[in-house]
Write a structure and sequence with these properties.
Length: 369
């Protein structure tokens, strides 16, 4: 029964991809409406958080042709009032007689309730169609909903011998222009990005979105700054300082904290870890509870090590240049003490490898997290 709907679900997944740069922290969702003859008469996608949901868009396009037809949707229709009314109300009002669902919504206020409501109203519901693909599409949202913590991706521009900067700290440019543009595009997908204070002090970056792919120009910019060394005159704070969140070790410098807060920065104190740096777990809990479903970590190497050694990274996104820097003093992509044996190291599952100009783009999941 489910096999016949696979091609249509693939089409719905393609619709869902249209929301890659704007839907978060909501999930990406795509929908199709088929009339009684099986012809597509409506398409929809959830393009931006707060905007119309995919089902509503598809049903509106279909109009009266939806009655007696089928709705194919990648994620279970919602039943609650959020930024928009419940989608099940629109589905029932449209008069479709069948709903084909890719995956259930892990949000505890939905999780099966949408399907149960539709069935109680006499609508046929078909589940389990391309479920794996539908869940992979929204792996960040699913992780956030199930744990309360954001999905963490480590992003790095690295040489073939694993360096992110040469001896002396120079890193411009390791990778090609094509890789840099792809890296900027990655920022457009995430709710927040994070760096360590070492990166800020060395590079004085702005850490902003550059490409305009996301309809929301605001990106939460997070700095791990255990001793509150961030200068109020840094480029990071030159524009939209209210988007900047600084985590420091408690107790920190109250004078610098107040100075940063006066210009709009959010300063959050957390307890120290075993290295007397900011404890990452309360950092992630705070971000997750403040609407950050996905976090892009752009280093440096010590920060990457902290996330990996504590089992808090879910994915690695690396742009690898055909370049060798060498040198014990060159900065590695992953610093720290390192593991004592290959058996203790972090194993990755390759998800995608492709050429990007003269570089390689590698996306890999962290095994076992």
């Amino acid at each position: 029964m489910t096999d016949q709907w696979q091609p249509r679900m693939v089409e719905a997944l393609a619709q869902a991809e249209r929301g890659r740069y704007g839907a978060s922290p909501n999930p990406m969702v795509g929908a199709l409406v088929l009339d009684g003859e099986g012809c597509v008469v409506g398409r929809g996608a959830h393009l931006r958080c707060g905007g119309p949901h995919a089902e509503v868009e598809a049903l509106q396009e279909a109009g009266a042709r939806a009655r007696g037809g089928t709705l194919v949707v990648t994620l279970e229709p919602c039943t609650h009032h959020g930024r928009t009314p419940p989608c099940v109300d629109a589905v029932l009002a449209a008069g479709v007689t069948r709903v084909v669902v890719g995956s259930r919504d892990p949000n505890p206020v939905v999780d099966g309730k949408g399907i149960a409501t539709l069935r109680a109203a006499g609508v046929e519901v078909v589940e389990g169609v391309a479920t794996g693909a539908c869940e992979r599409l929204n792996q960040r949202f699913f992780r956030w909903m199930r744990t309360g913590l954001p999905f963490v991706t480590l992003k790095m521009a690295v040489t073939l011998d694993g360096k992110i900067a040469a001896r002396g700290g120079r890193s411009r440019w390791i990778t090609s222009e094509a890789s840099r543009r792809a890296g900027y595009a990655l920022r457009e997908e995430f709710d927040a990005m994070l760096v360590g204070i070492g990166t800020v002090l060395a590079d004085d970056p702005r850490l902003r979105r550059h490409l305009g792919l996301n309809p929301n120009p605001h990106l939460a910019r997070v700095v791990l700054d255990s001793e509150l060394r961030l200068s109020p005159t840094s480029q990071l704070l030159a524009q939209d300082p209210g988007d900047v969140i600084v985590f420091c070790r408690a107790p920190a410098r109250p004078d610098r904290g107040r100075e940063l807060e006066r210009i709009g920065v959010t300063v959050v104190e957390v307890g120290p870890d075993e290295r007397d740096r900011c404890n990452l777990r309360p950092v992630l809990r705070w971000l997750g509870s403040h609407g950050v479903s996905s976090l892009l970590v752009e280093g440096g190497g010590e920060v990457h090590w902290s996330f990996l050694s504590e089992g808090l990274a879910h994915q690695v996104h690396a742009f690898v240049a055909p370049l060798l820097l060498g040198g014990r003093e060159a900065t590695p992509a992953v610093g720290g003490l390192g593991f004592s044996s290959p058996q203790e190291g972090v194993r990755l599952d390759l998800e995608e490898v492709r050429r990007l100009g003269e570089d390689l783009e590698i996306i890999a999941g962290v095994r076992g997290v």
